[in-house]
Amino acid sequence: MSTGRILRLIARTGRTTEPLDDTADHGLAIRDGFVPPRALHGSAQVRHVDAGSCNGCEIELGAAFGPVYDAERVGVRLVASPRHADVVAVTGVVTQNMAGPLVNTVDAVPHPRVVVSIGDCTRGCGLFAGSYAVAGSVDDFVEVDVHVPGCPPAPEAIVAAFRKVTGR
Amino acid sequence: MIEAVGLDSGVIDSVLVIVTQLVLAIAVTPLLIGVMRTTRARLEGRVGGGIGQPWRDVAKLLSKEPLRAPGSTPVLTTAPILLVASSLLLCALVPLVSTLALASVPGDLFVVVSVLLLGTVALALLGLESGTAFGGMGSSRHMTIAALVEPTVLLSIYALSVPTGTSALASIVQARKLDPTSLLNPVSLLSIVALVVVVIAETGRLPVDNPSTHLELTMVHEAMILESGGRDLGWLEFGSWLRLTALLGLVVNLAMPWGVAADAAPLGLLVGLVTITAKLLVTGALLAAAEVFMAKLRLFRVPELLAGSFVLAFLSVSASYLVF
User: Per 3-state DSSP, what percentage of chain A is helix, strand, and coil (rounded to 5)?
Assistant: First the structure.
């Protein structure tokens, strides 16, 4: 695309981000006794782990960081390494091959850390329950702090879960 | 009292200028990054994290205890400190607020490039330290780019130093401020363009490196710091940002030397502080806006870009002997 066309596109589009809705609770399940760590107030970096998802949740997670839902405005950013992260966002059932890597990833995140599980598969294995490839649900391997229900959950719900951590 | 300990007013003025520049660098750097990220977000139709987000990110990282892999060496802890120290030294040596010639500390072009290289080497060693494939790959790319960048930095500033007859950066900026006609001659324009390209490469901005990438295979800077977390990462981020402030500050002061103080008088320093802050933030916003229109260059095309900037710097040096 030429520079002129990009400029016109920018001028025509303006701001696409939708306002945050403070009233909806999106059915988030928060662990009893979970207090958002003080250090993560206003800023949290997220490492995403796909433990065996159908990619439905990935599309919604991608949308949550896109221009319309813009998770960055609540102080959240996706990072490329668990060492850089404060929050591990897990999607999908835990397959036999991903059980070890999931636990290792959570262990590689410096304290204080928070685990957010996204989608119905992370609690009770959803559609994939009983498959020979499934080792269990995310709760069986790591302690989940915030759970986002839905198959797949809406991007607003994912942003709302991150807001529980950053408080913005 | 002051005479009693053998300090003359020149040294006190130098210390005052250095302290002012360090305070400026530490205060303005997160703001500069915040302005750049917000500009980009707004042009993409997003709201973005806000101008204060880099502050919050660094404050959080510095409060987190790093988790280091078993078997890691002291390089993991010392490299971030070395990077921050070299970046702060860079901010002190480059004439950002005042061109007061520092008698005791040489703000020489060669000293500045060596200090720059110190931080580069610390980062490269850190990348190798983790022992992962990506870390080593990042270090090798980083050193390749550094090897192409350093000669251009030297040559382009050397071209500007020819009319002044000195390689002290402060004197070059001062001379250019006193003679505004020198700002628009071909020597100056060629070397400033060459310098802008190498500063973009050295600070890992688009189109040489993408600071917000998640694809390990395309990483340069990010690949080296993959294994650092918590406080270590906080220092690394801050050190890299300080380099951007120092280099961008040097370029804007060479291109537009207005407002830079010539001494350590309070009013002059205040004017210098305000003008350099405004110049940095405006240039940062322009740089971020330009990045929206760019894609990352393929790694094998980067040497072509840097060779192009080296040619500009070389032409600038040749022209400087014809003009003056």
Answer: 35, 20, 45
